[in-house]
Design a protein that fits this description.
This protein is of the alpha+beta class. It has 2 domains: 5-81, no CATH class; 88-148, no CATH class. The chain is built from 3 helices and 9 strands, in the order ββββαβααββββ. The strands form 3 sheets. The protein has a 5-stranded antiparallel beta sheet with strand order 4-3-2-1-5, with helices on both faces. Strands 6-9 form a two-stranded antiparallel ribbon. A two-stranded antiparallel sheet has the order 7-8. A hairpin with a 6-residue loop joins strand 7 and strand 8 (139-141). The protein is elongated and about 60 Å long.
């Protein structure tokens, strides 16, 4: 097993994670897709939830070899031009989504006549929860959604939590 690289897969493809090129922002990670030979940036918590380690050593070796070849031919150009653009774009998108969700949650609580104590990230070490929203029946997953600071329920994109239910 390589200490620099990790190889994983999901239903979209096989990915190489390279310790040497990860952004300082730990909430995000760069993965190189072996299948289409491109980089993209992802939320680290989603990668940890959905990308499973490759156990087939031949595929792992092939993916790492292919990545190293791509990196030697294209890496410098990619990192000089695209890396910061990708990271800044994703950061801005995440901040916009988080702000919109906090506002929806605030309005939900206001309409119920309840105080807004804010949101919190998913409690560290808490088990993975998947459920649906009681208000709109939307899908909820605590690896993706934040929790209400008051009731601890996962906050839906519609703004609902367990408060006032």
């Amino acid at each position: 097993m390589h200490s620099r690289f990790r190889v994983g897969y999901d239903n979209e493809g096989t990915y190489v994670w390279d310790r040497n090129i990860q952004p300082e922002c730990k909430e995000l990670c760069l993965l190189w897709c072996y299948d289409n030979k491109t980089f993209d940036i992802y939320e680290t918590r989603l990668v940890k939830s959905y990308v499973k380690p490759v156990v087939e050593t031949a595929l792992e070796a092939l993916a790492i070899e292919s990545y190293c070849k791509w990196d030697s031919e294209n890496g410098t150009n990619f990192f000089n031009s695209k890396r910061s653009e990708l990271i800044n774009g994703i950061k801005a998108s995440l901040e916009t989504k988080a702000k919109a969700l906090r506002e929806k949650h605030r309005i939900f609580l206001l309409e119920k006549g309840l105080p807004d104590n804010g949101v919190r990230p998913v409690t560290e070490g808490r088990s993975h929860r998947v459920t649906h929203c009681w208000n709109c029946k939307g899908h909820l997953d605590n690896t993706v959604n934040v929790e209400c600071a008051t009731c601890g329920w996962i906050i839906c994109n519609c703004g609902a939590c367990g408060c006032g239910r």
